[in-house]
Amino acid sequence: MGGDVNMKPGSLALVVVTASALLVTQASAAEIRVLSTPTLKTTLDELGPKFERATGHKLVTKFDAVAVLKRQIEAGELFDVTILLPVAIDDLIKQGKVVGRTDISRSGVGVAVRAGATTPDVGSVDALKRTLLSANSISYSPDSASSTFFLNLADRLGIGSEVRLKLKAAPGGRVMEPIASGDADLTVITIPNIVGVPGVAVAGRLPAELQSYTVFSAGVGATAKEVDGAKELIRYLVAPEATAVFEAKGMERVPQ
Prior knowledge:
alpha/beta
């Protein structure tokens, strides 16, 4: 009388429970919209799929410069989680666009060159100045926080006018592309933007007396559709289990 005749006792109940659990999982799965600085791209490229497998949620992530994303949020861009600089998050909180701030990681600044090229000396202040002055062209993005820091650094070193003559604006803010193709000699940028990018390499970190750390912070959108999922993602990113991935991408946890 059909296949159910030979079903073992309890099997039907197991099927029902399993199906119910699947329906619950599907019902609770969320599509989480994330707006993030490109500095976190390689990290999220690795942690994102792990988070999706662990939770059943799906991440829809958009990367752009902090200034660009901040303007888009202020203009009404819909999102659940944003990862920007603390000052941007704090300002968006004041505007009522973001709720809460969680510091996720921080990164130092380094010099990127084309992979396989002669590695310039950037280990001291004088060596860094010589390297910048000898470069034919320097890739940069006008909207990026790293480029703003770099130009201020050049002014502090007394070579601001010379450096500005060498600047080459990268298409779409993708500062690594001119480096990899050989169209620019170097760029000064946060380390995670260099690590793992094909065709480029880290020439070195800035000297200690010039080093600056950039903190990256997350916040939940004030009009987020998936508040619980957004909070779950932030908890996942700050969990100890994620630390090794951040470190492999050239970042570290923010000292408490």
